[in-house]
Design brief:
The complex is a heterodimer of chains A (139) and B (200). Chain A is rod-shaped. Chain A has 139 residues and is mainly α. Chain A is built from 6 helices and no strands. Chain A starts with a helix and ends with a helix. In chain B, helix 4 packs across helix 8 and helix 6 crosses helix 9. The radius of gyration of chain B is 18 Å and the shape is globular. Chain B is an all-alpha fold. Classes of the chains: A mainly alpha (139), B mainly alpha (200). At the A-B interface, helix 1 and helix 2 of A face helix 2, helix 3, helix 6, helix 7 and helix 9 of B.
């Protein structure tokens, strides 16, 4: 006697018709038949190889991709604005103001005598003073 | 419904009229339930039988209608469902092994049924010790009476995998049962008149 013959007789007594289990399962199956008959065919018979929830997942994935792309574009636009509006564009403006201030100072009259050492500021005309104040404010 | 000849035709008809699937249930309930009762207790066997037919009904549109018989397909579903209850199956087998009388009850010269009874405990213990994949193949071969090609189809695995799993499982069983590991095809066939099932 070999292993498979032994195995064939193992628990063989458990194989018997169980009418009660058959009837119970049949009833549950009949309910499923009724439900399937009542439901529209696309739900009852989904296309081969794709689960019923697959289209929803696909839409969700697409939506996420769009949201990510949008966020990325917005971040890039903000970064661009910040880069363009800072540093290189501000420096020429400051330099320009300083240059104008220096021109105003150079075009003023000779300096008045002063005993104090260091740079001496020339008195400005009224118009020049007002313009210089405006430039300083811009700085 | 009486015009329906094959399982394949019944399943095709059930795509239009779901009630046509009842033919499949009536034809194969006993086979599936019997197979699962050999592996599990009554309650779980009934649950798994119900689930097998529910799953089969829900997936009937995927059934390969080139195949006339649906039984290997149903056994495949049942075995895949059973796979997740392997621990429970092992516990039950070990309980059988623990309650089986010692080898001292062996009566010489009596038919093979007594031989099987004597070996029952050892066999239960050996089956419990098999890896789940190997146990599935052995159970489908012996209890579901599928041939190796049908097992490959049922479990959706290559035929070579079925052969190697079966070979390993039989080696383990024979070792555990203290049987000779030498198997001649002639012996196997003589033991199983229906026989090419063990080899092909």
């Amino acid at each position: 006697m070999d292993d498979l013959t032994l195995l064939k007789s193992f628990r063989a007594e458990r194989v018997r018709t169980d009418a009660e289990a058959r009837a119970e399962i049949r009833r549950e199956l009949e309910d499923r038949f009724d439900a399937a008959a009542a439901s529209p065919s696309p739900v009852a018979f989904p296309p081969r190889g794709r689960s019923p929830i697959a289209p929803r997942r696909h839409l969700l994935r697409r939506r996420r991709a769009f949201a990510f792309g949008g966020a990325l574009a917005l971040a890039a636009a903000l970064a661009g604005i910040l880069v363009l509006s800072s540093g290189p564009t501000a420096q020429p403006a400051a330099a320009e103001i300083l240059h104008e201030t220096a021109q105003i100072a150079a075009s003023s009259d000779a300096p008045t005598g002063s005993s104090r050492p260091g740079p001496r500021a020339a008195p400005l005309h009224e118009g020049q003073a007002g313009r210089a104040a405006g430039l300083v404010q811009r700085l | 419904m009486s015009e329906i000849q094959s399982d394949s035709q019944a399943i095709a008809a059930s795509l239009v009229d779901p009630h046509a699937f009842a033919v499949i249930f009536e034809r194969h309930f006993d086979s599936i339930h019997g197979y699962l009762r050999r592996r599990f207790d009554d309650e779980l066997a009934k649950d798994l039988t119900a689930q097998t037919f529910f799953v089969a009904f829900d997936r009937r549109s995927r059934f390969d209608r080139e195949r006339a018989e649906s039984l290997p397909w149903l056994f495949g579903i049942a075995t895949n469902l059973a796979h997740s209850h392997r621990r429970r199956e092992q516990a039950e087998l070990r309980a059988i092994a623990a309650t089986t009388p010692e080898l001292g009850v062996w009566i010489e010269g009596v038919e093979s049924r007594v031989d099987a009874e004597r070996m029952r405990g050892l066999l239960a213990e050996s089956l419990a010790g098999l890896p789940a994949e190997e146990a599935d193949v052995v159970c489908l071969l012996v209890w579901a009476e599928l041939n190796q090609a049908e097992i490959a189809q049922a479990l959706a695995i290559p035929l070579g995998t079925v052969k190697s799993r079966l070979s390993r499982a039989r080696g383990r069983l024979q070792l555990a049962l203290g049987l000779s590991s030498e198997r001649s095809p002639a012996n196997s066939r003589s033991a199983h008149p229906g026989g090419n099932r063990w080899t092909t």
